[in-house]
Amino acid sequence: MAIRNVVQVGDDVLRQKCFPVENFDEKLWTLLEDMKDTVKKEQGAGLAAPQVGVLRRVVVVDVDEGYFEFINPVITKQSGGQNGWEGCLSVRGKSGIVERPMRVSLSYQDRNGEKHELNAKGFFARAICHELDHLDGVLYIDRASHIEKA
Ligand code: CO
After folding, report:
1. Span from the CA of 97 to the centroid of ligand 1 (angstroms)
2. In sequence order, what DSSP letters do the residues of the chain get, joined into one string?
3. CA of 22 to the centre of ligand 1 (A)
4. Which of 11, 15, 62, 66 is most buried (CB neighbours < 10 A)?
5. Per-residue pLDDT tens for 53-103?
6. Contacts with 117 (C-beta within 8 Å, 6 or more apart), sequence order
7. According to the model, what pLDDT value does residue 150 have?
8. Which residues contact 29 (CB under 8 A, 6 or more apart)?
9. pLDDT tens profile 29-42
10. For residues 21 and 111, what is the distance between their CA atoms, to the nearest angstrom?
11. How far, in Å, is the centroid of ligand 1 from the Cα of 50?
12. CA atoms within 13 A on the CB side of 68
């Protein structure tokens, strides 16, 4: 277990498309443990693997509903809309207003490769959308209608 350095905007690694996870092995579990330590220490709502320099489709989300690990996640359904503030551990000192779906359905694998489905709404849905964007090299600042110094 270890805190990993969070890559900052401007680094090309944040703009890459991540590869699917194929091996659900100890290397993945170490990455997940480190991402958990890092997101808790930084008090983020989530963290995606490229933010710690790993180009794999892995995110963690830490919200009121609980702490989640999503491997190879895909949004299968979305509905409604919401506007709200977002920040990002890779864009320090700023926050912005972003439009996101109000509800999403997510299909994903857990750390053992088992498949699951999950429904999320409100801020939980927002956090999922934000983290999944990271896996395709998209940052919230690309989508924000308004950005301020936090
Ligand atoms: Co982010």
Report:
1. 13
2. --PPPPP-TT-GGGGSPPBPP---SHHHHHHHHHHHHHHHHHT-SEEEGGGGT--BSEEEEEETTEEEEEEEEEEEEEE--EEEEEEETTEEEEEEEEEE-SEEEEEEE-TTS-EEEEEEEHHHHHHHHHHHHHTTT--HHHH-SEEEE-
3. 24
4. 62
5. 999 999 999 999 999 999 999 999 999 999 999 999 999 999 999 999 999
6. 76, 105, 106, 107
7. 82
8. 111
9. 999 999 999 999 99
10. 10
11. 10
12. 25
Residue 40 Cα to ligand 1 middle (Å): 14
Q: Give the residue carrying structure tokens 């709404």.
A: 121
Write down the residue that tokens 């443990």 correspond to.
Answer: 33
Dist. CA 86 → ligand 1 center (Å)? 8
**C-alpha span between 101 and 125 (Å, rounded):** 7
CB 112 within 8 A of CB 73: no
Q: How far is the CA of 141 from the centre of ligand 1 (A)?
A: 9
Which residue in 36, 92, 93 sits closest to 67, CA to CA? 36
- Determine if the pTM surpasses 0.85: yes
